[in-house]
Here is the input.
Amino acid sequence: MTENKTVLAWLDEMTKMCQPDSVVWIDGSEQQLEALREEAVASGEMIKLNQEKLPGCYYHRTAENDVARVEDRTFICTPTEIEAGPINNWMEPKEMYAKLTALYTGAMKGRTMYVIPYSMGPVGSPFSKIGIELTDSIYVVLNMAIMTRIGKSVIDQLGDSGEFVKCLHAKKDVNPDERYIVHFPQDSTIWSINSAYGGNVLLGKKCFALRIASYLGKHEGWMAEHMLILGIENPQGEVKYICAAFPSACGKTNLAMLIPPQYLKDKGYKVWTVGDDIAWLKIGPDGRLYAVNPEAGFFGVAPGTSEKTNFNALESTKKNTIFTNVAINNEDMTVWWEGLDKNPPADATEWTGKKVNGAEYTAAGNKLAHPNSRFTAPAINCPCISKEFENPQGVPVEAIVFGGRRAKTAPLVYQARDWQHGVFVGATMASETTAAAAGAVGVVRRDPMAMKPFVGYNMADYFGHWLDMGKKLGDKAPKIFHVNWFRQDEEGNFMWPGFGDNMRVLLWILDRCAGKADAVESPIGYLPAENAIDTTDLDIDANVLKELLSVDKSIWLEDVADQKKYFAQFGDRLPKEIADELNKLETNLNK
Ligand code: GTP
Ligand code: SPV
Ligand code: MN
Here is the structure.
């Protein structure tokens, strides 16, 4: 399919190492993909779902030990350890290549190696970058076909350039003890082995579009962020764009596709989705910040997705979608997960493959779908996909929003005083862990800019890059905010209704950007003034709202102590501006 010498030499080297029986180029044609689907169904790798109710939809079940990203087995292999920084796993590149070469040698014997040329971002856009993934998994090919732009047009775009990210994935025997997700930023290379799940193997996603891209962005003057991108259209027809960074399974897909409360719909407000997980941000010709979604699909969390909570996501999954680790309703070969509705199927196959009575099984406290079960759906299926989705220039960003799951500390919303303070707000983000990564769930951990698992270089330098971008943007910089949809009362109930009602907070944010809404100063930044958040038709107690917008100084001082400890690990590499903001916060709280 190509005569590109760099591509062919690399392919030759990888083929000699992995020793597949055959090598197949993925040209992106529907005919080839359909043949692969049939092959995967024949081998049992995928199950065909009800083609009348769910046309083009398939089901896949992963190994029980392989259901989430594995952060402790993810490495950033820069030449020196300090380049990777204290929060990434690191190994010397030569040593890692040698270790992995031993694992990859002969790993594809008896298997086919698929060669997937793919573009992150619309093919040919000034934002876009090309990758080639070699994999021995049809599931990976079919997911990449949804999540990225693949095939001949991409290899034509690459021409004879050597500028592409070299991605190698071997499923091998899915042994968790020999599972490695490894990045060599200086070589634009990603090697993944012994997994067949999501972010570990769809190498265009977290590995390339965040870890490698954040490294490239630092050196080329742009940013790769774990952010959704949404447009809000007002009754006058003007659309303003917001980017928001929340940690994994903390509500990006939901916010990106939100349906406004009825009274706002009646007024003519609309929400348009540009992206639900990753944003590439660049300064445009007019000096403003522009965002592109490098992906072409949604790899979304299934549990909790329902007609009520996220109608648009659910709609997106009704055709040409791959479901991973949800439950099957055997009666009509459709899918089910916790939170879809209140009727678990009687004749169900739960996510590990056991046939159970769904009602009894769930009543006994078991889950039919894995908490990190997902759907892979084409973005074009989304009823509210933005018409700017394919715009090669991206969309101008009005506001950047940070957020996480905090049962106590963080109020519903506050605004940073300026860009530098905003970077500090992002840098001090913390959130309760979720099922999106292997390990304990519900433990508060610091997750700067929701990038803790995804930054491809030293986090302290990453803070520095954010500060530099602010200097370049000057007074054209987006305003920065922090939100928390997950504050809990004494009984552990969420105090804020969330989902569609989050629109009320977004409108305050946009009004602040336009210099309209009222705010009051607080030790942590600007809080909405009383009555500044529109609560029309919302059944919320005035005291609850007051509590949601309150700042408990003693809890915040505890957090400051934790922030200090966290920042200490970066030593004198931590930008002075961050240390200054920390001092300012502490002084404000002690006033
Ligand atoms: P990744 O794909 O892992 O990056 O996750 P994400 O950030 O896109 O999270 P997603 O939107 O899939 O939401 C994860 C979980 O949070 C789902 O179970 C949602 O139902 C729940 N959730 C999302 N928004 C809200 C909200 O406003 N309030 C509450 N209480 N839960 C929410
Ligand atoms: C996340 O964990 O943030 C995801 C899912 O979006 S994965 O692609 O597995 O990283
Ligand atoms: Mn994500």
Observations:
- The chain has three domains: 5-43+70-220, 225-294+387-590, 298-381.
